[in-house]
Specification:
single chain; elongated; about 80% helix; about 160 residues; 7 helices; mainly alpha
Amino acid sequence: MSDYLDGWNDFDVAMVGATSALAGLVIVAASVNIEVIIQARFLTARLASGIVGLALALTGSALGLVPHLAPAAYGAIMIVAGAIGGAVGGVATRAIYANPSPENRLRPVKAAIGFVAPLAYLVGGILLLAGQPSALGWFAAGAIGAIAASLLISWIALVEVLR
Protein backbone atom coordinates (compact mmCIF):
# COMPACT_ATOMS: atom_id res chain seq x y z
CA MET A 1 0.00 0.00 0.00
CA SER A 2 3.04 2.30 0.12
CA ASP A 3 2.57 3.13 -3.56
CA TYR A 4 -1.11 3.90 -3.15
CA LEU A 5 -0.81 7.29 -4.88
CA ASP A 6 1.10 6.05 -7.91
CA GLY A 7 -0.65 7.24 -11.01
CA TRP A 8 -2.76 9.89 -9.26
CA ASN A 9 -0.27 12.78 -9.44
CA ASP A 10 -1.54 14.28 -12.70
CA PHE A 11 -5.15 14.00 -11.57
CA ASP A 12 -4.38 15.71 -8.26
CA VAL A 13 -2.43 18.52 -9.94
CA ALA A 14 -5.32 19.11 -12.35
CA MET A 15 -7.88 19.09 -9.54
CA VAL A 16 -5.88 21.49 -7.37
CA GLY A 17 -5.75 23.97 -10.25
CA ALA A 18 -9.36 23.51 -11.31
CA THR A 19 -10.93 23.63 -7.86
CA SER A 20 -8.92 26.61 -6.66
CA ALA A 21 -9.69 28.60 -9.83
CA LEU A 22 -13.37 27.68 -9.70
CA ALA A 23 -13.65 28.59 -6.01
CA GLY A 24 -12.21 32.01 -6.79
CA LEU A 25 -14.61 32.51 -9.67
CA VAL A 26 -17.62 31.53 -7.56
CA ILE A 27 -16.59 34.00 -4.86
CA VAL A 28 -16.09 36.79 -7.40
CA ALA A 29 -19.44 36.02 -9.09
CA ALA A 30 -21.21 36.09 -5.74
CA SER A 31 -19.54 39.34 -4.74
CA VAL A 32 -21.29 41.15 -7.61
CA ASN A 33 -24.61 40.80 -5.77
CA ILE A 34 -23.30 40.31 -2.26
CA GLU A 35 -25.76 42.78 -0.69
CA VAL A 36 -28.72 40.78 -1.97
CA ILE A 37 -27.11 37.43 -1.18
CA ILE A 38 -26.39 38.21 2.47
CA GLN A 39 -29.99 39.27 2.99
CA ALA A 40 -31.23 35.81 2.00
CA ARG A 41 -29.89 33.19 4.41
CA PHE A 42 -30.71 30.34 2.03
CA LEU A 43 -28.55 31.89 -0.71
CA THR A 44 -25.64 32.45 1.64
CA ALA A 45 -25.83 28.90 2.97
CA ARG A 46 -26.18 27.43 -0.52
CA LEU A 47 -23.13 29.30 -1.83
CA ALA A 48 -21.17 28.32 1.27
CA SER A 49 -22.01 24.68 0.57
CA GLY A 50 -20.70 24.98 -2.99
CA ILE A 51 -17.50 26.70 -1.90
CA VAL A 52 -16.92 24.17 0.88
CA GLY A 53 -17.32 21.35 -1.65
CA LEU A 54 -14.61 22.92 -3.78
CA ALA A 55 -12.41 23.48 -0.72
CA LEU A 56 -12.90 19.83 0.15
CA ALA A 57 -11.82 18.75 -3.34
CA LEU A 58 -8.87 21.13 -3.18
CA THR A 59 -7.83 19.72 0.20
CA GLY A 60 -8.17 16.12 -0.93
CA SER A 61 -6.18 16.69 -4.11
CA ALA A 62 -3.51 18.78 -2.40
CA LEU A 63 -3.03 16.09 0.24
CA GLY A 64 -2.63 13.56 -2.54
CA LEU A 65 0.44 15.52 -3.63
CA VAL A 66 2.13 15.45 -0.22
CA PRO A 67 5.17 13.18 -0.49
CA HIS A 68 5.21 10.11 1.77
CA LEU A 69 1.85 10.88 3.38
CA ALA A 70 0.71 7.79 5.25
CA PRO A 71 -2.56 6.34 3.95
CA ALA A 72 -4.03 6.32 7.47
CA ALA A 73 -3.28 10.02 7.92
CA TYR A 74 -4.73 10.84 4.50
CA GLY A 75 -7.87 8.82 5.25
CA ALA A 76 -8.34 10.35 8.70
CA ILE A 77 -7.95 13.91 7.42
CA MET A 78 -10.45 13.27 4.65
CA ILE A 79 -12.97 11.80 7.09
CA VAL A 80 -12.75 14.96 9.21
CA ALA A 81 -12.90 17.21 6.14
CA GLY A 82 -15.85 15.25 4.73
CA ALA A 83 -17.68 15.52 8.05
CA ILE A 84 -17.15 19.28 8.10
CA GLY A 85 -18.40 19.51 4.51
CA GLY A 86 -21.44 17.42 5.46
CA ALA A 87 -22.15 19.72 8.41
CA VAL A 88 -22.09 22.76 6.13
CA GLY A 89 -24.40 20.86 3.77
CA GLY A 90 -26.73 20.28 6.71
CA VAL A 91 -26.84 23.99 7.50
CA ALA A 92 -27.55 24.73 3.83
CA THR A 93 -30.33 22.12 3.80
CA ARG A 94 -32.01 23.71 6.82
CA ALA A 95 -31.80 27.12 5.15
CA ILE A 96 -33.22 25.77 1.88
CA TYR A 97 -36.19 24.24 3.68
CA ALA A 98 -36.72 27.41 5.73
CA ASN A 99 -37.18 29.46 2.55
CA PRO A 100 -40.96 29.89 2.23
CA SER A 101 -40.83 31.00 -1.41
CA PRO A 102 -43.29 29.13 -3.64
CA GLU A 103 -40.59 29.26 -6.35
CA ASN A 104 -38.35 27.08 -4.19
CA ARG A 105 -39.23 23.89 -6.05
CA LEU A 106 -37.13 20.75 -6.00
CA ARG A 107 -35.99 21.35 -2.42
CA PRO A 108 -34.81 17.75 -1.91
CA VAL A 109 -32.65 17.90 -5.05
CA LYS A 110 -31.25 21.32 -4.19
CA ALA A 111 -30.44 20.12 -0.69
CA ALA A 112 -28.91 16.80 -1.77
CA ILE A 113 -26.44 18.41 -4.18
CA GLY A 114 -24.38 19.80 -1.31
CA PHE A 115 -23.78 16.31 0.09
CA VAL A 116 -22.23 14.77 -3.05
CA ALA A 117 -18.58 15.58 -2.37
CA PRO A 118 -18.62 15.21 1.43
CA LEU A 119 -20.19 11.76 1.16
CA ALA A 120 -17.65 10.59 -1.42
CA TYR A 121 -14.77 11.83 0.73
CA LEU A 122 -16.19 10.19 3.86
CA VAL A 123 -16.51 6.84 2.08
CA GLY A 124 -13.04 7.24 0.58
CA GLY A 125 -11.50 8.11 3.94
CA ILE A 126 -13.08 5.11 5.62
CA LEU A 127 -11.91 2.80 2.82
CA LEU A 128 -8.40 4.24 2.98
CA LEU A 129 -8.26 3.65 6.74
CA ALA A 130 -9.33 0.07 6.01
CA GLY A 131 -6.39 -0.30 3.64
CA GLN A 132 -8.42 -0.28 0.42
CA PRO A 133 -6.68 1.47 -2.52
CA SER A 134 -10.14 1.81 -4.15
CA ALA A 135 -10.59 4.73 -1.77
CA LEU A 136 -8.73 6.93 -4.23
CA GLY A 137 -11.49 6.34 -6.77
CA TRP A 138 -13.96 7.73 -4.23
CA PHE A 139 -11.72 10.76 -3.78
CA ALA A 140 -11.71 11.26 -7.56
CA ALA A 141 -15.49 10.97 -7.64
CA GLY A 142 -15.67 13.47 -4.79
CA ALA A 143 -13.48 15.97 -6.63
CA ILE A 144 -15.41 15.68 -9.88
CA GLY A 145 -18.71 15.70 -7.99
CA ALA A 146 -17.63 18.81 -6.08
CA ILE A 147 -16.99 20.65 -9.32
CA ALA A 148 -20.32 19.63 -10.83
CA ALA A 149 -22.23 20.32 -7.61
CA SER A 150 -20.55 23.68 -7.08
CA LEU A 151 -21.36 24.81 -10.60
CA LEU A 152 -24.98 23.80 -10.16
CA ILE A 153 -25.27 25.31 -6.67
CA SER A 154 -23.66 28.55 -7.84
CA TRP A 155 -25.92 28.76 -10.87
CA ILE A 156 -29.04 28.18 -8.77
CA ALA A 157 -27.97 30.76 -6.19
CA LEU A 158 -26.99 33.40 -8.69
CA VAL A 159 -30.25 32.98 -10.62
CA GLU A 160 -32.29 33.14 -7.41
CA VAL A 161 -30.61 36.46 -6.54
CA LEU A 162 -32.38 38.01 -9.50
CA ARG A 163 -35.86 36.69 -8.57
